[in-house]
Amino acid sequence: MFLMFKKMLLKLWLFGMQVLSHFIQDGCLYRASALTFTSLLALVPLTVVGLSVFSAFPLFSQFSQEIQDFIFSNFVPSSSHAIQKYIIGFVDQASNLSVWGTSFLVITAVLMLFTIEQALNAIWRVKKRRGGISAFVVYWAILTLSPFLMGISFLLSTYVISLSQVADAANILGVASYLITVTTIVLSTVMLSLLYIAIPNCRVPFRYGIAGAVCAAILVEFAKFGFSQYLLHFPTYQLVYGALAMVPIFLIWVYLLWLITLLGAEISRYLALRYDIVSRNKLDPFCHGFRWLGHLWYAQQKDKPLTLFNLVKMDRCQYAISPEEQLRQLQKAGFIQRSEKGRYFISCDVSETTLYDFYRAMPWKLPNEIGTVGRHIREMELAPDIGQSQEQLERVLSKRLKELFKPSN
């Protein structure tokens, strides 16, 4: 029992370290700053769109004010009423804008989703973003669908809480206050799931998108509690900025929200791939590419092209380079191609391609030896050739540099 618990903690630790490492490598700290700035510009347009969606449905229109109060009071840890007052005031002014002014608001909201897509594409290692009409259609669908889904979630949660059996049980158990927290987590999960699954320009497995959203939603609740406690016990900003303290506090909170949002996207990606939480050893890039080319060739014999997730699950080991980079190099070298559905297949003649061709075309060095993580049937067949190559290479290049350097005349 103890060994099982220890192994689980080790996997959790490795998972957390890998997520945090790639969170930093993907520039999420910088991207959260860009998203914070964009959010300030798009806050009013997003609110306008949301209120328009609510007013379009009679079921939502009568609960519009309650939904607004709930969102501001439960998603903004401090000065929520003041912020709500200012934003609603800006929205009222926006209703008097001309067609060009309204168009500018819509463009601002779309640009925010464009920035979000760039950040999520970077996390999922997607090089190509959406463009043209398809991008606008997806963005607009998300803008209009998000308030609708949040409204449905709010109404369902409110209905469940209002049931006499649920309310009586909550009061008896003393957990009535926690039902609001659960409702907040549900709303956050709905919104984040939509971002994680729909916005990246790649296929994100539905369950892993939701799993990452749940993790991020829970982290938001912890962050909200910690941020509120900090503002309560360390009112530094209020002492320095006085009446303007609301501005930096709100900026910091929005930045923190985007950090958690991007962290949830990283969690989604690693839950989907799960290739580097089972071992500390890393498969070298050369054997990695060789192995995956073999996977794809054998799968093609059965007329079953593989996806990135299929390839990762066939290995279950840690790689020295990212799987996306390996596939990119195999495509660049002309060994594989990617279908429109995201499946990979062999594009070279394996019967005519030599191991030397593979070595010259790929940017990876030959490993010194086949490591423990590379003890696969294909790598074991490759091991003698690698050993001989290293011996011959050492013999040919055994001259000392001093013998090769010649003084200039």
What does this molecule look like?
This protein has 409 residues and is an all-alpha fold. The chain has two domains: 2-273, no CATH class; 282-396, Orthogonal Bundle (Arc Repressor Mutant, subunit A). Helices cover 74% and strands 2% of the residues. The chain has 18 helices and four strands. The strands form two sheets. The chain has a two-stranded parallel ribbon. Strand 3 (336-338) and strand 4 form a beta hairpin. The longest helix has 31 residues, at 132-162. It is elongated, with a radius of gyration of 27 Å. It starts with a helix and ends in a 5-residue tail after the last helix. The mean pLDDT is 75.
Total E-strand runs: 4
Poorly predicted residue ranges: none
Overall radius of gyration = 27 Å
Spatial order of the strands forming the largest sheet: 1-2
**Secondary-structure element order, N to C:** HHHHHHHHHHHHEHHEHEEHHH
Q: DSSP helix count?
A: 18
User: What is the molecular shape?
Assistant: elongated
Strand fraction: under 5%
Key descriptive features of the protein:
409 residues; mainly alpha; Arc Repressor Mutant, subunit A; two-stranded parallel sheet; 4 strands
Q: Secondary structure elements and their pairing?
A:
Blueprint: H1 2-25, H2 28-56, H3 58-61, H4 64-75, H5 80-94, H6 99-123, H7 132-162, H8 164-173, H9 176-198, H10 206-233, H11 236-241, H12 246-273, E1 282-283, H13 285-301, H14 308-315, E2 318-319, H15 323-332, E3 336-338, E4 344-346, H16 355-361, H17 377-396, H18 401-404
Parallel strand pairs: 1-2
Antiparallel strand pairs: 3-4
Helix pairs in contact: 1-12, 2-5, 2-6, 2-7, 2-12, 4-5, 6-7, 7-9, 9-10, 10-12
